[in-house]
Design brief:
Length: 373
């Protein structure tokens, strides 16, 4: 099955109509259901093909390059590292000036421009002394190590920052718009405040302007009522999925729709069915997940668990799971931060033992290449 993961873009721009418009798909992909597509098997499998790289420092976002190499953000170091896709050798692509790494903040998500072949732009979400923001940098692989990134150009700023709950995942959707997961910084009220950028999923142009078709034409807010979104990915029918940290009870996987209210702080996990909030399609006890990155491959959402130290598989049928979630790699590699499509039936999985909450061993942190079904 085709796949679309975080940080990638595929296909032409979608019509900018809302989810309820007949005969057209919305930018979130909530148009026609995939009933015609075969659901994946109830039970899947994961095989670790190789450990590509070791010794990474506080890795967070990952962006595969067209030449097969990878760019990885180091949260605490404020640098982007290039990883050779064959040998796993690492070199510094460049520093991102202005990163203020404190608590859960720092250099977080990465995404390549949907027009990377021509503009060579890399986008980064990072924490500064005053906010969280997004900047673009031109990447030149021919330059020496440490000099491959241009000076950053800020495209969007003013996202609230906190010691915790900074969100940080960014990804270009099938509509070539930039989607951004933010956190409510521990200030719960921000999630329901549509005037705040905290506790939201944002949708903007590559230049940082509100995208055509947003709920409010003057706002980048796409959905709200979120606590801390760190996973974004699209399925083959262009539906947007997002993972979300719960507080003490339930972590969530959500199907994201335009102007959807996902309940925080009034609801954690499934609500009482009163129709005011959108329920998650799956939920987990926080000890079993604490989800960060997600990707879609082979008809399933694959979700990285930090506290849960496992890779979750959620098989899909349309906009609902087709079978119970299944856990893999439980406790084998420690905390898992990021999962990104490596093409076909393969994924890149990034561990996160060096983020201050793990128990790092000699080779941590690592990038794993895994084959999934």
């Amino acid at each position: 099955m085709a796949l679309l993961g975080a940080g990638c873009s595929s296909g032409p721009a979608e019509p900018e109509s809302g989810p309820s418009s007949p005969g057209s798909a919305s930018p979130s992909g909530s148009g026609s259901p995939s009933a015609a597509s075969d659901a994946p098997p109830d039970k899947g499998s994961v095989e670790v093909v190789r450990t590509l790289a070791t010794g990474l420092k506080s890795p967070w976002g990952l962006a595969p390059l067209p030449d097969g190499n990878l760019l990885v953000a180091s949260r605490d170091e404020g640098e982007i590292v290039q990883v050779d896709g064959d040998s796993g050798r690492t070199s510094e692509a460049g520093q991102v000036p202005g990163v203020d790494a404190e608590g859960e903040g720092g250099l977080l998500g990465l995404a390549l421009s949907p027009d990377f072949a021509t503009d060579q732009l890399v986008y980064a979400y990072f924490t500064t002394a005053s906010d969280n923001r997004i900047a673009s940098m031109r990447y030149d692989a021919k330059k020496p190590a440490g000099e491959r990134l241009s000076a950053p150009s800020t495209i969007f700023k003013g996202i609230p920052k906190g010691f915790t709950h900074n969100g940080g995942r960014i990804a270009f959707g099938p509509d070539k718009m930039l989607y951004v997961g933010t956190g409510e910084t521990g200030d719960k009220g921000l999630a329901q405040d549509k005037e705040s950028l905290g506790g939201k999923i944002l949708r903007m142009t590559p230049e940082g302007e509100p995208a055509r078709g947003n709920p409010d034409g003057d706002s980048v807010v796409w959905s709200y009522g979120h606590r801390n979104v760190q996973g974004l990915a699209w399925d083959e029918d262009r539906r947007l999925w997002a993972s979300e940290f719960g507080q003490d009870t339930w972590d969530e996987l959500n199907h994201i729709e335009k102007n959807g209210n996902y309940g925080w702080p009034d609801v954690e996990g499934e609500g009482d069915g009163d129709g005011d909030f959108r329920d998650p399609v799956e939920q987990w006890r926080t000890a079993d997940a604490s989800p960060s990155g997600i990707a879609v491959a082979e008809g399933s959402v694959w979700m990285a668990g930090l506290r849960g130290e496992r890779l979750w598989r959620i098989p899909l049928s349309g906009d609902k799971p087709s079978a119970k979630p299944q856990a893999f790699l439980e406790g084998e590699y420690g905390r898992l931060r990021t999962v990104v499509s490596a093409g076909g039936d393969k994924l890149w999985v990034v561990t996160n033992e060096t983020d201050g909450r793990g128990s790092p061993e000699k080779d941590d942190d690592r990038i794993l290449e895994v084959r999934v079904r």
